[in-house]
Design a protein that fits this description.
- The chain is mainly alpha-helical.
- Helix content is 68%, strand content 1%.
- It has helices at residues 20-25, 44-53, 65-84, 86-124, 143-154, 157-162, 165-171, 183-198, 200-219, 231-234, 241-275, 284-304, 306-331, 334-350, 352-357, 366-374, 376-396, 403-435, 451-457, 462-492, 501-522, 524-582, and strands spanning 3-4, 594-595, 621-622.
- Strands 1-3-2 form a three-stranded antiparallel sheet, with no helix packed on it.
- Helix 9 (200-219) packs across helix 22 (524-582), helix 11 crosses helix 17 and helix 11 crosses helix 22 (524-582).
- The longest helix has 59 residues, at 524-582.
- The protein is globular.
- 47% of the residues are buried.
Length: 627
């Protein structure tokens, strides 16, 4: 058997496509045809047609009826229940929360720790080389812009709301059950526990969904919808009722997560207004008015579109957040804040595993259950509820990144930013309490929403910084609402990148209504309970998503290995052929292995309509030995 060396398929011939054998073995991880991909210049009609060809069932008005109506009706029912029967709603949500904490707290702790380990393992394994897009594709955004957008996703109302109060609470009035030691030791543990709540763990949750969606969207060409992340294990069933249920649960989680954040936001805005003298007292009427006003602004933003609204506001709040943190760092106890960052990082690293899996097994009782339901388990539920929104966002901005780059960027950048934020803001509260005025604890409690303004008012330019903080929370409120509304609308529209404006307005208003209803029903505790309850079923979907992602990436890795083997074989064959040809003069006996006859077949002759282009001037054929 002879083979022309110059006809060996070069590396470029694969064009980064999968090996046929791998694709046949895994039809549900194969990329869909390019003509079905949604392109930037597609019209709404073309996008709708492509979505339908992929199995998306769209109805009138550009919505997916099997997702839109169930989600809308259930969320409306919850809002009406909370408005008409606030006491009953408060009791119901708290009962659900207490049951989850008492019976499934260990489950939340276990799966979150598992997500951290899984994401890191994927990033450092051979799966990390896979591109979230076509092989060889360049990233859509530069490194700096990508990091900035990850930072924007990581900053939110929660960071501003809990930035001062959380570590201060742990160190003073509400230490974690089982902690012992001096005041300074408790302060170090308090900072480390805060790092646990806002560092690798939440971002591992976001990375699980973000990676699964980025693989489905950019690698395989599927629509932006949670269901497609499960296609590697569910197959065509994601196109039916099972996929509808998955997207409905994602909408529940996003709406309740955004509503929780909005409720926290108005509480802090009202505290800031009281601190600078704009209002004399804070009550539910003021909170509802604030929700109405800011929801109206969020609606205007979401109507304006992504480029004019969300992007513009994101740039503003990033600048304001950076200005606020740097101002506190420079105007406050600068040396102590740097020392606090370094020491807290050490305590965090020393206690990472213990705090990750601490479920309070040896601190039984109501006090332990209350602490976990108020803090760690609530956070894990909140992050899971937020995960569809943040996951879709980071997936959309990560086209062209490798899996390893994705994991590194998503885990490390927001985590480091969060550590710096809490070291500065939380450290300022600790310094004021332990080495300054000592007035951060009042009536045996720390005001989570008001402690920020206590710290700011003691600094030079404190009044100005307080106004900046109020505006910062308000803008975070708006960006959370309009971004969340857009994501929910895309899910309810089958993954359409330009969903109907009327439904964007509907979801923005509904988030505000739900936030107001839950706030009136029971305040922060009801918001926490609602977020925790919606996260439970979605956590199961996240576990399935993890399995699906690993399955899909393993097939991708095998395809790449086949391609690389072909390329190595081509290089080795070319090298051996060159060596053999060069040795013919010195070792004539090798000529018996070479067939250098000219091909005089009639089919070899081509006319002007079938001209054959030679790859090179020389054409050599190698045949096996006759021996």
């Amino acid at each position: 058997m002879t083979k022309n060396i110059d006809e060996v398929e070069p590396p470029e011939a694969d064009n980064g496509q999968h090996a046929d054998a791998v694709l046949e073995a895994s039809p549900h991880t194969a990329p869909i045809p390019v003509h079905m991909h949604i392109a930037e210049d597609d019209t709404d009609e073309q996008i709708t047609a492509k979505l339908r060809r992929q199995g998306v069932r769209l109805g009138k008005g550009g919505i997916a009826p099997a997702v839109f109506w169930p989600a809308l009706l259930v969320i409306l029912a919850v809002a009406v229940f909370a408005i008409l029967a606030p006491n009953a709603a408060d009791t119901t949500f708290n009962a659900v929360q207490n049951w989850i904490v008492a019976n499934l707290g260990w489950y939340y702790m276990l799966i979150i720790g598992g997500f951290v380990a899984l994401v890191i393992a994927i990033g450092f394994s051979k799966l990390g080389r896979i591109t979230l897009g076509n092989d060889g594709e360049k990233p859509e955004f530069g490194l700096f812009s990508w990091f900035a957008m990850l930072f924007a996703a990581g900053m939110g109302i929660g960071l501003v709301f809990y930035g001062v109060g959380e570590p201060l609470t742990y160190a003073t009035v509400d230490p974690k059950p089982g902690w012992e030691g001096s005041e300074s030791e408790l302060a170090g543990l308090a900072m480390a526990q805060t790092f646990i709540h806002w560092g690798l763990h939440p971002w591992a949750i976001y990375a699980v969904i973000g990676l699964a969606l980025a693989y489905a969207i950019h690698r395989r060409g599927r629509p932006v919808s949670i269901r497609w992340a499960l296609e590697p294990i569910l197959g065509d069933r994601v196109k039916g009722w099972l996929g509808d249920v998955i997207d409905v649960l994602a909408i529940f989680g996003t709406v309740f997560g955004v509503a929780t954040s909005l409720g926290l936001g108005v509480q802090q805005i009202s505290s800031g207004m009281k601190a600078i003298g704009l209002v004399g007292s804070v009550d539910n009427t003021l909170l509802v008015i604030l929700i109405v006003v800011i929801t109206f602004l969020a609606t205007m933003s979401v109507v304006s579109g992504l480029g004019a609204g969300i992007k513009w506001l994101s740039n503003i709040n990033l600048s304001m957040a950076g200005l606020l943190m740097i101002s506190v760092l420079l105007l406050g106890p600068t040396l102590f804040l740097f020392q606090n960052f370094v020491q807290s990082l050490g305590v965090y690293l020393a206690n990472f595993m213990n705090m990750t899996f601490d479920v309070g097994a040896f601190q039984q009782g109501e006090e332990s259950a209350t602490w976990f339901s108020s803090w760690t388990v609530f956070y894990w539920g909140w992050w899971i509820a937020w995960a569809p929104f943040v996951g879709i966002f980071i997936a959309r901005i990560s086209r062209g990144r490798t899996v390893r780059q994705f994991v590194t960027g998503v885990l490390l950048v927001p985590t480091i930013v969060g550590f710096l934020w809490f070291s500065v803001m939380g450290g300022s509260g600790l310094f004021r309490q332990f080495f300054g005025a000592g007035d951060m604890v009042q009536d045996g409690a720390v005001s989570a929403e008001g402690s920020l303004f206590q710290v700011l008012e003691a600094l030079p330019l404190g009044s100005i910084l307080s106004v900046v903080a109020i505006l910062l929370v308000a803008i975070f409120f708006i960006t959370s609402s309009d971004s969340g509304s857009l994501v929910v609308d895309m899910l309810a529209s089958g993954g359409h990148p330009n969903p109907p404006t009327w439904s964007r307005v509907l979801w923005a208003v509904l988030e505000g209504v739900l936030a107001a209803a839950l706030l009136v029903a029971g305040g922060l505790k009801t918001l926490q309970a609602g977020s925790l309850a919606t996260a439970l079923p979605f956590s199961i979907i996240m576990i399935m998503m993890s399995v699906a992602t690993i399955k899909g990436l393993r097939h991708e890795s095998r395809a790449l290995e086949v391609i690389e083997q072909k390329r190595r074989l081509a290089r080795v064959t070319e090298h051996v052929s060159d060596e053999l040809w060069g040795a013919l003069d010195e070792q004539p006996e090798l000529r018996r292995y070479v067939d250098d006859r000219i091909d005089y077949r009639v089919s070899r002759t081509r006319g002007i309509f079938g001209k054959r282009v030679e790859s090179e001037a020389k054409s050599r054929h190698v045949k096996p030995s006759d021996d």
